[in-house]
């Protein structure tokens, strides 16, 4: 039996109507009809300039598409709805979201992490139970490993999809037709190199004091031999005596490189890494 827990930082909805799948194909970076049915896939909605406005997970069903985004970005979704004019497309009401770890579900699992499942809750009565702190930390760490680089108002509309790891987790297709920003995204892919990349950062907390709760927007990360492009922290957590997170870094930064992470008056020496090395029991985690 699967143990479902509520994920209060997320909200979801159903995109319905006979044009729902075609509409999502015309708006999202992923190749929606090619996705396995009823499996959650990381994808994105971009601005006309090719910058990612929303990172989401979406699941294609026979006659509709379900999407899940951060609650903090729910208002941005209304801008996507403007493109439904002239189409048989309806955005359903906001739903709570529940998640399950160590899932044995046959559908509703994450495509890149089938041990986890997600579902939309139509009523309070069916919502998952309140998650324990350890359970939620484990879920959020799995998001870092996937990687699933959730955005908020400070990181929305800033980065190309390549800089958010969407090539690696199949959230970006170069074979499909147009979507907002597609021409710019494709030009970078075929004619250049993305100036930024998604990496992980991790530090041992045994080095000294560190604030108990540090929001990503209060963190500064410095690399002495990097160019002037800053390193942006998207999300972070503390687990097993380590501080770890996802960052958008200049292409010149490499996994294994040392950086300094500052939060107020405190500082840590940290190491850049590939996101998958943050996973539990990965050879490079030491856990």
TrEMBL record:
It comes from the Bacteria. SUPFAM superfamilies: Folate-binding domain (SSF103025). GO terms for biological process: iron-sulfur cluster assembly. PANTHER family: TRANSFERASE CAF17, MITOCHONDRIAL-RELATED. This is Uncharacterized protein. It comes from Wenzhouxiangella marina.
């Amino acid at each position: 039996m699967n143990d479902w827990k509520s994920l209060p930082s997320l909200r979801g909805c159903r995109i319905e109507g006979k044009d729902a799948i075609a509409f999502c194909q015309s708006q999202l970076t992923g190749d929606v009809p090619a996705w396995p049915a009823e499996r959650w896939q990381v994808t994105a909605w971009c601005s006309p300039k090719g910058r990612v406005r929303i990172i989401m997970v979406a699941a294609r069903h026979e006659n509709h598409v379900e999407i899940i985004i951060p609650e903090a970005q729910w208002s941005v979704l209304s801008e996507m709805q403007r493109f439904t004019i002239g189409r048989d497309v309806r955005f359903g009401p906001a739903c709570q979201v529940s998640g399950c770890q160590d899932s044995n579900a046959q559908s509703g699992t994450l495509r890149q992490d089938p041990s986890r499942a997600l579902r939309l809750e139509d009523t309070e009565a069916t919502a998952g139970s309140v998650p324990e702190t350890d359970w939620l930390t484990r879920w959020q760490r799995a998001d870092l490993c996937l990687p699933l680089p959730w955005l908020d108002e400070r990181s929305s509309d800033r980065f190309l999809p390549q800089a958010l790891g969407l090539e690696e987790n199949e959230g970006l297709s170069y074979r499909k037709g147009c979507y907002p920003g597609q021409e710019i995204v494709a030009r970078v892919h075929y004619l250049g190199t993305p100036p930024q990349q998604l990496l992980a950062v991790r530090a041992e907390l045994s080095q000294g004091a560190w604030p108990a709760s540090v929001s990503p927007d209060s963190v500064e990360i410095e690399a002495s031999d990097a160019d002037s492009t800053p390193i942006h922290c998207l999300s972070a957590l503390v687990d097993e005596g380590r501080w770890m997170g996802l960052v958008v870094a200049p292409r010149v930064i490499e996994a294994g490189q040392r950086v300094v992470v500052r939060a107020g008056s405190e500082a840590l020496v940290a190491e850049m890494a590939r996101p998958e090395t943050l996973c539990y029991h990965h050879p490079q985690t030491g856990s």
